[in-house]
Amino acid sequence: MQSSSLGLVTYALICVGLLAASWRHPGAAIAGVLCMFGLEQWGQATTKFFAHHQSATNLVIGGILVFALIVQFFRTGLVLFKGYPTIGWLTLAFFLYAFATIQWAPRPDLSLNLWESRWPYIVTIVMLCPLLITEERDLHAANAALALVGGTLAMLLLFFVKWESRRIVLDDVLGNPLAIAAMAGLVVVILILTEPGPRSVLWFSLKWTFVAMALALIVRSGSRGQLLGVLLVCLVCWPISRGLRNVKQFAILTLVILFISAAVGWTMQEFWGGEVASGKGRWNEHAAQQDVSGRLANAMLMVDLASESPTTFLFGLGNSAAYDRRILGIYPHFLPLEVLAEEGVFGFVLYGIILVLTLRSCYMGLQLSQGDPDLRMLLGGLFGMYLFTVILSLKQGSLLVNLEPFMLGICLGRFEQVMARRRFDAQSDLEVTRSSFRYLADQPTS
């Protein structure tokens, strides 16, 4: 256990800062949810209270989110689920159907126990978080808070906790390296694809320090998928966020790639130098290929089992069926095929429609943000986070764990509505102006 005073003070400052930011800009509470597992491991690694009360951080972040929703209600007259996007309703229907499939799961008791532990996260992350996106400034606040809180946590977790191999020591247990790497990846995505802070020399230095620390944390945790995912997302989403229409933008992208490559290379040598030099361990290409093929084999085993009868083919084996020791004893680490096997064709079609509608929201957002660089960066950052979490769902976690892709998909739907409303208001104002000019032009001159 590291310094309790440092851990408790920084933990309190982060929580108070999120609460204060949520009072001014309720959208900032979204950052608390996205950084929740990083904050949780920081608290447990430095303070015995959090190590012995593992749900404390979840309750704190949940309380901040509820506070932000109350503030949003009094400031904007927020009505729950009013104007909720189609993506949101389909996502809720999908999770309700997944819950219903417990009835025919091979171990309903086991599936129900998993839902009992996960339903607060489903309500908090999937249902409530997107409600905070009502205006453009809500997304600005979420990005700024994610950059500051996530960047700070990345530095704290990198230098001020005890590590054992790729895991943080949490009192007498080891932490989850994938969770903190996922948080760090979101920080990198939002810092590179958007401008969450003021345009100043101080912020420029802090921004790239956060990027370097977050990348270092990903490498330190040995999270190969997160590292590959963040690099891929930044390249794919850069044209959405910044465009590549001139030499200057292309040069900036090249410098960003060089900076990331240098940071990753230095960190690999610093923490995994022996493995990299010998070609062994987690950063060995053969080992990575074996892990991927093993996960796909487990997922295909479940799909084959579900295909044995028309009923299970259509309606699935039942949610969390993979946890039955007669099947796998654990989830298959590949969400799409898990959905196909456990929720059947019916659930998989719902899942696919949600994915298509999310991509459509991004496309519509591109049309609505034409000529507005700030909106384009917000859209690029939001879609980048969504794509990053979707990539992670192809290599880790189960449906009940991979909640961020659904939350961010609904946020994209909400942001599309914000942009459409803004475009409509602008066109209405333009029409009023034109009508006024026509009226004045029609008046007889004295």
Draw up the topology in text:
Layout (H helix, E strand, L loop, with lengths): L3 H21 L4 H6 L1 H11 L1 H5 L3 H21 L9 H15 L7 H21 L7 H24 L3 E2 L2 E4 L2 E2 L2 H17 L7 H20 L3 H18 L5 H32 L6 H22 L3 H6 L19 H34 L4 H20 L11 H39 L4
Please outline what is shown here.
The chain has 17 helices and 3 strands. By secondary structure, it is an all-alpha fold. The radius of gyration is 23 Å and the shape is globular.
Structural class: mainly alpha
How many individual β-strands? 3
Radius of gyration: 23 Å
Shape: globular
Number of helices: 17
Oligomeric status:
single chain
Please trace the helix and strand order, writing H or E for each element.
Answer: HHHHHHHHEEEHHHHHHHHH
Helix content: over 70%
Beta-sheet strand percentage?
under 5%
The biggest beta sheet is recorded as: 3 strands, antiparallel
Strand order of the largest sheet: 1-2-3
Uncertain ranges: none
Distance between the termini: 87 Å
Give structural notes.
There is one protein chain. By secondary structure, the chain is an all-alpha fold. The chain is built from 17 helices and 3 strands. The chain has helices spanning 4-24, 29-34, 36-46, 48-52, 56-76, 86-100, 108-128, 136-159, 177-193, 201-220, 224-241, 247-278, 285-306, 310-315, 335-368, 373-392, 404-442, and strands spanning 163-164, 167-170, 173-174. Strands 1-2-3 form a 3-stranded antiparallel beta sheet, with helices on one face. Helix 1 packs antiparallel against helix 3 and helix 8 packs across helix 10 (201-220). The longest helix has 39 residues, at 404-442.
